[in-house]
Amino acid sequence: MSISICTATSNDYYAVNSLVREEHEEHVMEEPAIFKSVESVMPESYFKDLLEEQNSHIFIAKNDELVVGFAIISIEHSPSFQSLVRRKYGYIHDFGVRKALQKQGVGGLLFTGCKEWAKAGGATSIELNVWEFNANAIAFYEHLGMKGISRKMSMNI
User: Fold this and answer.
1) Which GO terms fall under molecular function for this chain's record (predicted)?
2) Residue range 42-55: average pLDDT?
3) Per-residue confidence at 39, pLDDT binned at 50, 70, 90?
4) Helix 44-52 to helix 13-30 angle, to the nearest 10 degrees?
């Protein structure tokens, strides 16, 4: 297996959406009150906007010419509140690797690409959100050195 990490183009939309849909279906199964099954999880207009946005980047992982992973990252700034330290950080909005190729280094290569891109953009850290049910993703991010800093909670009423 020969994996390369590169920048997505508009031609990669359908391949990326297929990967997003694969991971989305797990979310539908685990949190059906929040997620629903749809054919196109990521709107094409959103994908194209991200490609044009200077502070955002879409990485893809290719095995030969087949897209097997993706990461969407942007440069963000903390709110300018007196009570908060001003920060510039990379925020990973979405991240996925084809299930059959997980735990083979593809995710690590994508994450390294995100980290290097964010650092080059002046970020001092990387943040992301991960769902509590996604134990594999939590373990993956912890293995890379990330740690939990907050928790979103919910209850049905």
Assistant:
1) acyltransferase activity, transferring groups other than amino-acyl groups
2) 95
3) confident
4) 120
Pairing of strands 56-63, 66-77: antiparallel
HEC assignment per residue over the chain:
CCEEEEECCHHHHHHHHHHHHHHHHHHHHHCCCCCCCCCCCCCHHHHHHHHHCCCEEEEEEEECCEEEEEEEEEEEECCCCCCCCCCEEEEEEEEEECHHHCCCCHHHHHHHHHHHHHHHCCCCCEEECCCCCCHHHHHHHHHCCCCCCCCCCCCCC
Q: Going by C-beta distance under 8 Å and a sequence separation of 6 or more, which residues neighbour residue 27? A: 34, 35, 131
- Tokens 């969407």 belong to 72
User: Hunting for tokens 């502070």 — which residue is that?
Assistant: 55
pTM: 0.93
Q: Does domain 3-143 have CATH number 3.40.630.30?
A: yes
Entry field: residues in the chain: 157
**CA 108 to CA 72: how far, in whole Å?**
14
Q: What is the pLDDT of residues 85-102, one digit of tens each?
A: 899 999 999 999 999 999
